[in-house]
């Protein structure tokens, strides 16, 4: 029976690369997305072409408990199991802390941290029952090192690291691993709008002298989601070119 993976924020960028990576391994791939239906459909097509056993797209809000419950119920009703969860969904509302509104802080924490908590909580019961599971949280280097203008985002990603380490201790005896991947500067839609001069300036600060690709992050996630990584849990793997 094919394994089943849920990827939140799976319609574009890093999430899409992760979903396609699972597809290449023959998983049932469940793509959760917030609003871009066209992108989700494109990712579904890519997953099917890449060898996924089956693909499901689900539109919902990871910060909403009812939405998360419906997603996990849909997966369990269809496949009877959930083997891997990648908490990738995230938003930014950047600004200096002196000017940051409480709403901008709360919305980032709600999606990036609360969403990962809700999804992790909901997959824990089926994973414990089957005595197998892989949870990978997508954090960020700014969650490790901080970044001016991103107090809310950095806090959410640092919170993910603390949550990762705590849940890992709770679930390790059940053959469930929980790890985090902390990407650095990755070439996605968000970085595509930068000028060549801005990109050159960024690249000069990275020891590897280039931005990472979404596939670089996906490769790390797929490693941690693999059966062979069973003795690795509670860890944070930076994928940053040495940044």
Kindly describe this structure:
This protein has a 7-stranded parallel beta sheet, sandwiched between helices. The chain has a single domain (4-238), classed as Rossmann fold, CATH 3.40.50. It has 9 helices and 7 strands; from the N terminus they run E-H-E-H-E-H-E-H-E-H-H-E-H-H-H-E. Helix 3 (65-79) packs parallel to helix 4 (102-130). It has 243 residues and is of the alpha/beta class. It has helices at residues 13-24, 37-49, 65-79, 102-130, 141-145, 151-171, 189-192, 196-204, 214-224; strands at residues 4-8, 28-33, 54-59, 84-87, 133-138, 176-183, 236-239. Helix content is 49%, strand content 16%.
Category from helices, strands and their pairing: alpha/beta
Count of discrete alpha- or pi-helical segments spanning 4 or more residues: 9
Helix-residue proportion: 40-55%
Largest sheet: 7 strands, parallel
């Amino acid at each position: 029976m094919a394994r089943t993976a849920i990827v939140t924020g799976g319609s574009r960028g890093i999430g899409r690369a992760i979903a396609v990576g699972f597809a290449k391994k023959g998983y049932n791939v469940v793509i959760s997305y917030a609003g871009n239906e066209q992108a989700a459909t494109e990712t579904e097509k890519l997953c099917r072409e890449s060898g996924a056993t089956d693909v499901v797209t689900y539109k919902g809000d990871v910060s909403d408990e009812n939405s998360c419950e419906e997603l996990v119920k849909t997966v369990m009703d269809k496949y009877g199991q959930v083997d891997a969860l990648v908490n990738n969904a995230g938003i930014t509302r950047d600004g200096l802390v002196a000017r940051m509104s409480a709403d901008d802080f709360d919305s980032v924490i709600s999606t990036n941290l609360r969403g990962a908590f809700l999804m992790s909580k909901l997959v824990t019961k089926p994973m414990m029952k089957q005595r197998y599971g892989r949870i990978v949280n997508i954090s960020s280097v700014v969650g490790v090192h901080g970044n001016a203008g991103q107090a809310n985002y950095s806090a959410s990603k640092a919170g993910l690291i603390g949550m990762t380490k705590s849940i890992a201790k709770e679930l390790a005896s059940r053959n469930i691993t929980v790890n985090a991947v902390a990407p650095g500067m990755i070439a996605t839609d968000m970085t595509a709008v930068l000028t060549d001069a801005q990109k050159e300036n960024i690249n000069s600060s990275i020891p590897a002298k280039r931005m990472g690709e979404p596939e670089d992050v996906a490769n790390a996630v797929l490693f941690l989601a693999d059966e062979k990584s069973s003795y690795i849990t509670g860890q944070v793997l930076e994928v940053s070119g040495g940044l």
